[in-house]
Design goal:
The protein has a single domain, classed as 3-Layer(aba) Sandwich (Rossmann fold), CATH 3.40.50. Helix content is 41%, strand content 16%. It contains 3 helices and 3 strands, in the order H-E-H-E-H-E. The protein has 82 residues and is of the alpha/beta class. This is Putative transketolase.
């Protein structure tokens, strides 16, 4: 198969790092995941911000409802699906 450079930056890593960077600056940011902490590379985010990552499990239909409630309460929700 084609050779892929090991120097390419992993998009999942960039995504997780960007969310963590924003979360450090704004304590309103909350991430809502659908049992995708591992595949979204959000384990480090969960470890650093354990109360700001909500895992709804395999219930994607609930993610948007949870996010809407968080926003209504003054948070900045990010719906994360992997």
């Amino acid at each position: 198969g084609p050779q892929v450079s090991e120097n390419l930056y992993d998009c999942r890593k960039a995504y997780a790092q960007t969310l963590a960077d924003i979360a450090r600056q704004d304590d309103r940011l909350v991430v809502v995941v659908n049992d995708s902490v591992g595949s979204s590379n959000l384990g480090g985010f969960r470890d650093e911000f354990p109360t700001r990552l909500i895992n709804v499990g395999i219930a994607e239909q609930n993610q948007v409802g949870v996010a809407a409630g968080l926003e209504n309460g003054g948070k900045i929700p990010v719906v994360s699906c992997a």
